[in-house]
Write a structure and sequence with these properties.
The radius of gyration is 33 Å and the shape is elongated. Strands 1-2-3 form a three-stranded parallel sheet. Helix 16 runs antiparallel to helix 20. The chain has 487 residues and is mostly helical. The protein has 20 helices and twelve strands. The longest helix has 16 residues. It binds one RNA strand of 75 nucleotides through helix 4, strand 7, strand 12, helix 11 and helix 18.
Length: 487
RNA sequence: GGCCCCAUCGUCUAGUCAGGCCCAGGACAUCACUCUUUCAAGGUGGAGACGGGGGUUCAAAUCCCCCUGGGGCCA
């Protein structure tokens, strides 16, 4: 039999990492078992559901390449279906009308709480006579439909947790249809899962307490009960359920920060599941091959951004350069210094990114890392300048290097290195004595990739010009006195 | 408050189902050293955990019970 799984988000908020991970596990399991992975939008709560969130959720899934089979099911288009099934339960006396007002119910609960009894609906409306119900209905009174919870206990075998049992007496006669005729979560969920032919329900373990209610509904309808697997939650650093307080909530924000979708997918897949052994970086194909819902952990895990960053940099190192370029361009175009004409020389961009990519943890780092390969007027790092321009002899060395560089005919890394080292030797100074100031001259910074490689890329003319410029601007520089802020 | 779930380094986890191979392995982070023109990356090494108490057993991270702690749902 082909299994069928689904991811069923409510468009009442953005798609956050917790939701994505649930989607990932459903997706992986479906692919592993050669089944189907479906999508359902639970938009029955008209007040809190927003169209924009649907797009946000869909875009997030698409970005992560979590693609779904078949058409998306929208609950808002199935309201008639839910009503039909509610009436069926009503007719079979497995559900009943409740005319209690919110105030009445609150009053009831208050008393129960005072008496330290379980807060549960009194079933008051269940004992109403046929005539009374008829009368109340004809008066067009506000009403809900409640499910009549039978006696006994409800147990199920959770694929992750094992057997879980609830006593039915702890479950109140829950509402299945609200007064506005819309279905409640548990009711719509069961009907949809049944209509969609869902065989396995994989969701967060915040739904464990919903499961017995749903099972009771399956039984009332005489439907086959699907398998359930309840995943542990992803918690914020404060060990509380993920929420807006924890910063980047929407997965799209990870995209905007320059995370690679495959890195986030890998990271999230391994948050709560392990293929066993010491695997960290694992391809999607291998995940599908090795995935088993039974290998999921039972305990909640905390989202560790540090490890995500590390994993992203690993993916960044391995990814095809051309793809990195394409993705980087999106970030570069947001920079004010970036000019459209730079994109004509893709070969140069490629070389520059190749040289700097391993220093990037996210794509967003790229523009900063390559800025000085494009613009010539940058400021000089104050701290570095104070340290490396303390000795006026530095200018002597730079002058010397400048004139030696001018003589170079084949401008390459090796030749440049030779020249720089020779000048330092002639001056009877350590090579670093000139290398550091040179770096400041060429990049304005104290750190970066190999100086000689970077000089090769920047080109002879521009390198010489930059050296000329720093000599001119810093001439007469006195450490600690000269105001470097102006550079 | 009621019910349910969970418990291995700071974090993610392997090992738990089929007890001995585990005085607990890996990864991130951290520290030291190394490489090096700098930073990062890389390499080497260090520190770091079975929440507590009872059982069962020749033997428990692993099985059972209790406590504690954390989380979730309902209100």
């Amino acid at each position: 039999m082909q299994i069928r799984l689904r991811f069923a988000p409510a468009p009442t908020g953005v798609l956050h990492v917790g939701g994505v991970r649930t989607a990932i596990y459903n997706f992986l399991y479906a692919r592993k078992m050669k089944g189907k992975f479906l999508l359902r939008i639970e938009d029955t709560d008209v007040e809190r559901s927003q169209k924009e969130f649907i797009d946000v959720i869909l875009n997030g899934l698409k970005w992560l390449k979590i693609d779904w089979d078949e058409e998306i099911i929208f609950q808002s288009k199935r309201l008639d279906v839910y009503r039909k099934y509610a009436i069926k339960l009503l007719e079979e006396k497995k559900a009943y009308y409740c005319f209690c007002s919110e105030e009445e119910l609150e009053e009831e609960r208050k008393i129960l709480r005072l008496e330290k009894k379980p807060v549960k609906y009194s079933r008051k409306c269940y004992s109403k006579s046929e005539e009374e119900i008829k009368r109340l209905l004809s008066e067009n009174r506000e009403k809900t439909v409640r499910f009549l919870v039978p006696d006994g206990e409800t147990k199920f075998l959770d694929l992750i947790h094992g057997e879980i049992t609830f006593k039915n007496e702890e479950i109140e006669d829950f509402i299945i249809l609200r007064s506005d005729g819309s279905p409640t979560y548990n009711f719509a969920c069961v009907i949809d899962d049944r209509d969609m032919g869902i065989t396995h329900v994989i969701r967060g373990d915040d739904h464990i307490s919903n499961t017995p209610k749903q099972i009771l509904l399956y039984k009332a309808f005489g439907w086959e009960i699907p398998e359930f697997a309840h995943l542990p939650m992803i918690l914020g650093p404060d060990r509380k359920k993920l929420s807006k307080r924890h910063g980047a909530t929407s997965v799209i924000e990870y995209k905007e920060e320059g995370f690679l979708p495959e890195a986030l997918f890998n990271f999230l897949a391994l948050l709560g599941w392990s293929p066993g052994g010491d695997v960290e970086i694992i391809s999607r194909e291998d995940m599908i091959e090795k995935f088993d819902i039974k290998d999921c952990r039972k305990s909640a895990s905390i989202f560790d951004r540090q490890k995500l960053l590390w994993m992203n940099s690993e993916y960044l190192k391995r990814k095809d350069l051309n793809e990195i370029i394409d993705l980087s361009l999106e970030f570069l175009r947001k920079e004010k210094w970036w000019k459209k004409e730079y994109e004509k020389d893709l070969e140069y961009l490629k070389k520059v990114v190749e040289l700097t990519r391993e220093r990037a943890k996210v794509l967003k780092d790229i523009p900063y890392l390559i800025e000085y390969f494009y613009i010539d007027d940058f400021g000089y790092d104050v701290e570095a300048t104070e340290r490396y321009f303390a000795d006026p002899k530095v200018f002597e060395g730079l002058e010397e290097i400048k004139s030696e560089l001018e003589k170079i005919e084949t401008w390459d890394e090796k030749k440049i290195e030779e020249v720089v080292r020779k000048v330092a030797d002639n001056l009877k100074e350590k090579h670093a004595f000139l290398i550091h100031p040179l770096r400041i001259a060429l990049t304005g910074r104290k750190v970066g990739p190999s100086l000689f490689k970077l000089m090769e890329l920047i080109g002879k003319e521009r390198c010489i010009e930059r050296i000329r410029k720093i000599i001119k601007e810093l001439w007469g520089y006195i450490p600690g006195k000269t105001d470097l802020k102006k550079f």
